[in-house]
Amino acid sequence: MASAEADALVISSDPLHPANLIPELCRSFYQLGWVTGTGGGICIRTGDKVYIAPSGVQKERIEPTHIFVLPYPQPPPSPHTDRVFLRRPTSNLKESACTPLFWNSFDLRNAGSCIHTHSQHAVMATLLWTGPVFTISHQVRGTRLLVMSTSAVLRFPSQMIKGVRIAGTGTALSYLDTLEIPIIENTPNEEDLKDSMAEAMVKYPNAAAVLVRRHGVYVWGNDWEKAKTQTECLDYLFEIGVKMKLAGLLTVLNE
Ligand SMILES: CSCCC(=O)C(=O)COP(=O)(O)O
Ligand SMILES: [Zn+2]
């Protein structure tokens, strides 16, 4: 694709164009402490095009011209290139190291957007709940409850659970549903999380997110709005769960 034609993929006066949205959303995620220190971010897929931010840059300072555009699906790999782009920035930038993980959300959930945060609430949840899954249920014998792993139960207002969708892209959970968020173990390189994230998504087909121990969380949705609001709901649940655990408000069943 010629350069001018390729650049047209990221130049738009529409504030809702993905190349304008990604910088704006990254600025608000930075304020929340989700993407400080360059890591984390958001990708947006609109049909056959994926918009992705650069790697290792201050995410709150991204501009539309820094955005990569990739075709979805990717053509079969060739000996000459392992990733195909419709548009790359002219500056010396590399696409986000999260790209293979974002791709899991497209391939396995048909997501339209995926968010990766380094939120301390998500990290603390993976430190305080040491098992392979973070499970939230709502109500037992008329009492609203939050259950984290199989070992702990706490009383909890369940409203935020209703902001999460089954599998991230299905129908909204009711407070009668159980929410399961698998936790995978971290690796030195972000790219190496791809297979364990995919395995967790297959094992937990209703999961709307995958937590990464000592690292953060990946959350996806049908579009950027749903990915964003689900990330907000889950972050709220992680935060209050951690606070309640630290305050000794959990009823431990089986530790
Ligand atoms: C300090 S970030 C380390 C790598 C990481 O966790 C990450 O999320 C990288 O994201 P990027 O988009 O900057 O490649
Ligand atoms: Zn990360």
TrEMBL record:
GO terms for cellular component: cytoplasm. GO terms for molecular function: methylthioribulose 1-phosphate dehydratase activity; zinc ion binding. Zn(2+) binds at residues 116, 118, 215. It holds the Pfam family Aldolase_II. Keywords: Amino-acid biosynthesis, Cytoplasm, Lyase, Metal-binding, Methionine biosynthesis, Zinc. It is found in: Cytoplasm. Its EC number is 4.2.1.109. It catalyses: 5-(methylsulfanyl)-D-ribulose 1-phosphate = 5-methylsulfanyl-2,3-dioxopentyl phosphate + H2O. Substrate binds at residue 98. Its main location: cytoplasm. Residues 20-242 form the Class II aldolase/adducin N-terminal domain. InterPro entries: Aldolase_II/adducin_N, Aldolase_II/adducin_N_sf, MethylthioRu-1-P_deHdtase_MtnB, Salvage_MtnB_euk. The keyword Cytoplasm applies. It comes from the Eukaryota. Binds 1 zinc ion per subunit. Its cofactor is Zn(2+). SUPFAM superfamilies: AraD/HMP-PK domain-like. It is an enzyme of class 4 (lyase). NCBIfam families: salvage_mtnB. PANTHER family: METHYLTHIORIBULOSE-1-PHOSPHATE DEHYDRATASE (PTHR10640). Belongs to the aldolase class II family. MtnB subfamily. This is Methylthioribulose-1-phosphate dehydratase. It comes from Gymnopilus dilepis.
